[in-house]
Known about the structure:
The structure is a homodimer of 311-residue chains. The first copy, chain A, is 45% helix and 13% strand. Chain A is an alpha/beta fold and 311 residues long. The first copy, chain A, folds into 2 domains: 1-34, no CATH class; 35-306, HUPs (Rossmann fold, 3-Layer(aba) Sandwich), CATH 3.40.50. In chain A, helix 1 packs across helix 8 (211-220) and helix 7 packs across helix 9. The longest helix of chain A is centred in the middle third of the chain and has 19 residues, at 137-155. The radius of gyration of chain A is 20 Å and the shape is globular.
Amino acid sequence: MAVCSKCGGNGVYERRYSGEVLCANCFKASIVEKTRRTISRYGMVKFGERLGVAVSGGKDSLSLLKVLDGLNQDSRFQLVALTVDEGVRGYREESIAHASDLTRQLNIEHVVVSYEGLFGFSLDKALDWKDEREISSCSICGVFRRRAIDEAALKAKVNVVATAHNLDDYAQTFLMNLLHGDVERIGWLDPAYVDESFPVRRVKPFMEIYEEEVALYAYLSGIPFQSVSCPYMHEGLRGEVRDYLNEMEVKHPGMKNVLLKSSLSVVSRLSPAETGHHSVPCITCGKPSSGGTCNVCKMKEVVRQHVKYGE
Amino acid sequence: MAVCSKCGGNGVYERRYSGEVLCANCFKASIVEKTRRTISRYGMVKFGERLGVAVSGGKDSLSLLKVLDGLNQDSRFQLVALTVDEGVRGYREESIAHASDLTRQLNIEHVVVSYEGLFGFSLDKALDWKDEREISSCSICGVFRRRAIDEAALKAKVNVVATAHNLDDYAQTFLMNLLHGDVERIGWLDPAYVDESFPVRRVKPFMEIYEEEVALYAYLSGIPFQSVSCPYMHEGLRGEVRDYLNEMEVKHPGMKNVLLKSSLSVVSRLSPAETGHHSVPCITCGKPSSGGTCNVCKMKEVVRQHVKYGE
């Protein structure tokens, strides 16, 4: 490969959409700088705030924690790592260990919550149904994980939670919402999205960075790769949309970025009611809901009715 | 195949997104009825109006003419067929003959205009460049064809022009606009789109009908298929998007329809300035333009500079 376009060193990566060739150090620096610009552009974090980082222990979230720590050398904000232990035996132990290792190494406060502690059952237990399921494992888990991150955020008293969603996740979600006819849900992609009745904001500092660049950052930074995948993973439409966007990006470099711009352009045309979500207390547990009983209480009831007897 | 869900006759088509099985007659009637509903839903044609139908002579536009004629047995509006002869030797003669045959058979007024008559050169001549081209043939032809249809509409004194764009065209254009980052151009997909400074409206009565159903309608109605394709056709991104949407529709029947709904949902959120196009007179020819010199005058100049000398 050619030499680094910035320093003349050994090129390790060609950024196809820009034509740049970068060495390992200049590439890593570019990811940090891109993240800094995204945070600044959308005003994601304010001076002095406590910033929770949702760290599953996979390469994306570990990379985000490392990048944010690198950006915080002047302690402009206070970093806290938030980990949810869903309770998946033989899978989750490894990634939680990676999260613990990195937070210790970077000397970052680490708050861990578990499905077992919050809801009274692990994911293994919640998915151990006596009958066929019509709901996907990811749908069940997603409802609980969102609440668990909220709970971890409240426990850690943070002002804002950063998740490691990247440009690919963003473009996939946008296209999936359109293919589902859920235009109003595109409001969730608003970088300035707030739930006005919940005290913690959510931001996505990697939203302008390609999945493959996050992976390369992780590799070049010595961040450990998780050796096993979630045994319950079922991708469905997202996998199909991912494959399509990857093919399109190869044929038309920069297309995912264009799709991000289109999504932001659509978001900018939504009404404030669509981008600022107004939740109301769940009539059962009092936590935020869109009205009546919240999704978590509904899903707990579904799980309660279906898990195997006598266990 | 099973029997027709409507009349118990011999089923020839299974509509995957609805589960219906239809015989030839019930299928054809369903296309006419769907078109009637689309026209009614979006108020496309008013009582007593002169309705021009852009008829290239391909299966889609011949089908549209036949369906609209069938819907007009009570002469609620006056049908006029509008044909543009781009001037492509060995290709266009066949489809123009098909258009003439059907208009004669249905006793419909037929107005034909040509690039040669309107612009002074055929498409064959306009594309006969002495050097390599950076503009695709379809881009060049599209600029002239849009103007030619406008001219035919004015000549025929119609109030509204119907084109045979179908659900597939619509879904493809929507996705292509997003992949190009052209959110403001999505306004053109507004079924109620008007150019406030041009007296003729444009409507798409087949916008809710699948391409494959238009093709089957044509086949079952004895509408002739054109045996050759345009020699200049170059699909580029549209071909890729078409293939993708076709794959998605097979896996998830009804998805193109959902994408149409999403596009209309996005259109409904655009500002009036984005959906009502305001043109101003071209400083060269006085015809509608977005400002300064119109695209037709610009493209004529490009063609003039590049066509082979001495011919």
